[in-house]
Amino acid sequence: MSTKNKVALVTGGSRGLGRNMAINIAKKGMGVVVTYNSNKEEAGKVVAAIQSLGQKAAAFQLDTSNIKQFDGFFNELTTYLNKETGGPNFDFLINNAGTALYAPFAETTEEQFDAVMNIHFKGVFFLTQKALPFINDGGRIINISSGLARFSFPGSSAYGSMKSAIETLTRYLAKELGSRRIAANVVAPGAIATDFGGGRTRDNKEVNQQIASVTALGRVGEPEDIGGIVAFLCTEEAGWINGQRIEASGGMML
Ligand code: NDP
After folding, report:
1. Radius of gyration of the chain (CA)
2. What is the pLDDT of residue 3?
3. Of 6, 14, 36, 146, which is the active-site residue?
4. How far is the CA of 202 from the centre of ligand 1 (A)?
5. What is the pLDDT of residues 108-145, one digit of tens each?
6. Which of 56, 156, 159, 249 is catalytic?
7. How far apart are CA 12 and CA 190, in angstroms?
């Protein structure tokens, strides 16, 4: 499976990890479609960066927590793909979009729980289901989990649980989609310096140092620590990796 003429869809590709994934995938010679929730301008910059690498790129608005929007989104996406590639299909789905919730278990409200569930689990479940008819046989699904599904920090009970759910879902996807030669894997980053959670890993000195102190490689992660791994999982060489959880955390909480 050569990467030539392949197309990846990266949700939440306007900033942070998704942006880095999109650019690294383009560097491997693939076209990329990114989605954004509200940040059209940043998404436009990602598209321009990919086009300057000589690859096709587009950005579409999509709230991945709003399942009612999905049919309209796939109409838009497949219209674009038909025009640009001669068919409605793509090859790689990267479920990356997400927001943070830091709330003690005893204080987590039903509203907060639902918001985290919708974006991190239910949205991923049904976006992937609706994407299936358009993913080429032999394609790949990459779900973004978190180190917090393996280790526990106070305040992440809802978020960490949804990420665990994604990991279980990924094994089921790998099992059920194997007949179409579609592989499904999880990439689980440790704490990364992005806007996530108000940018606390990047901007809060105390948090940053605390994470660095429990990380074997002695620092927090940067987006560039993750994007290349996701891009690799889209290559021919990674084709036999299936149903796996790949943690990229610099050895956090070992
Ligand atoms: P950022 O906050 O930097 O970026 C979030 C991205 O998700 C943006 O592109 C944003 O779009 C998009 N987004 C936010 N809400 C929605 C929504 N309702 N629908 C669709 N898209 C949305 O976060 P990161 O890049 O750091 O995080 C990306 C993923 O990595 C998440 O799944 C997160 O849980 C996971 N992760 C992050 C870690 C970290 O420490 N940073 C650690 C482990 C996992 P817009 O620009 O339009 O707002």
Report:
1. 17
2. 76
3. 146
4. 14
5. 999 999 999 999 999 999 999 999 999 999 999 999 99
6. 159
7. 18
Please say if the pLDDT value at position 89 is more than 90: yes
Domain 7-248 falls in which CATH fold? Rossmann fold (3.40.50)
d(CA 217, ligand 1 centre) in Å? 24
The residues, ordered by sequence, that sit 6+ positions from 153 with a Cβ below 8 Å of its Cβ are none
According to DSSP, the β-strands at 57-61 and 31-36 are parallel
With bands split at pLDDT 50, 70 and 90, how would you rate the model's confidence at 1? low
C-alpha of residue 18 to centroid of ligand 1, in Å = 7
Which tokens belong to 88?
Answer: 């409605």
Taken as a whole, the chain contains a residue count of: 254
pTM of the complete model: 0.99
Supply 109's token pair.
């409200």
Q: How far apart are CA 231 and CA 193, in angstroms?
A: 19
Beta bridge partners of 59: 34
The pLDDT tens digits for 184-226 are 999 999 999 999 999 999 999 999 999 999 999 999 999 999 9
Q: In the annotation, is 146 catalytic?
A: yes
**CA-to-CA distance for 64 and 144, rounded, in angstroms?**
14
Does residue 215 contact residue 9 with C-beta atoms inside 8 Å?
no
Q: Give the ligand 1 atom nearest the CA of 119.
A: 18
Question: Residue 143: CB within 6 Å of ligand 1?
Answer: no
* Residue 145 annotated to the active site: yes
